[in-house]
Amino acid sequence: MLPRIFDTGLLLCQPAPMCGDQIYNPLEQCCDEGTILPLNQTRLCGPYCTFWPCFQHCCLESLGSHNRAVVRFKVPGTKSNCTSAPLTRICAQEYLPNKPSIRTEYFWTILRSTDTGHSRF
Asked: pLDDT tens, 53-85?
């Protein structure tokens, strides 16, 4: 009869994911710019817009003389950034144009882009 060996330690079949010099569990955590975060953590992108830093970027973009906050996807397996990542949504802004016709078009543009998740500018 062969003896049974029970090992209660962790058996790794592949290299453990690293964040800086720390190991993390990719089923529960992510590495965001050298910091280990829980997958469900959210942050604000602008004053009223939340995003998941494990899966998305918060980016500030210039649109003429105005800045706007947008949320973009992080692309797995690439070094994605704000200029190359796909757009998720445009965050609501405090800016309101003075002319009623421009204000109406501005709100419809935001509503269309938040409904579909795509920019319509």
From this structure: 999 999 988 878 888 899 999 987 777 788 888
pLDDT tens by residue, 32-59: 889 999 999 999 998 889 999 999 999 9
Q: How many C-beta atoms surround the C-beta of residue 90 within 10 A?
A: 24
Beta-bridge partners for 70:
59, 90
Q: What is the pTM of this model?
A: 0.60
DSSP of the chain: -PPP----S---SSPPPEETTEE--TTTEEEETTEEEETT--EESSSS-EE-TTTEEEEEEEETTEEEEEEEE--TTS---TTTSPEEEEPP-S---SSHHHHHHHHHHHHHHHHHSS---
Return the percentage of the chain with pLDDT > 90, whole number.
Answer: 35
- DSSP symbol at 5: -
Contacts of 108 (CB under 8 A, 6+ apart): none
